[in-house]
Amino acid sequence: xxxxxxxxxxxxxxxxxxxxxxxxxxxxxALRGRVKVFEAVELAIKEDAAAAWKTVxxxxxxxxxxxxxxxxxxxxxxxxxxxLPPCALLACAPQSLVNAWLGSNMK
Length: 107
Prior knowledge:
By secondary structure, the protein is an all-alpha fold. The chain has helices at about 1-20, 25-30, 35-45, 50-60, 65-75, 85-105. Helix 4 (about 50-60) packs parallel to helix 6 (about 85-105).
C-alpha cells in the first residue's frame, strides 16, 4: 500500500512535467477560446490561488484514469507544478488503500 501511495504521485508529477515539455500548453491555448468550462477554470485559478489547490485536488480525487487527469491539468497554464504533488499524494492515498484492500481480499 505504501509503495502505491508514493509511486502514484511521482508518476503523476513526471507525466505532468513531460506533458508541459511536449507542448500541451499550446493545446490549452487552442481550447481556451472554444471550451467555456476550460476558460472558466483558467480564470478562477488566476483570480484565486486557493482555487488552484481546490481544482487540482478535486481532479486528482476523481475516479478517472490518471493520464487524462494529469494531461488536462498540464494544459491549464495557470496550474503551477508545485500544487500537483501534494494534491496527488492526498488524493491517491484513499484509492491506493481501497485497491490494495480489494487486491488482497480477491484470493
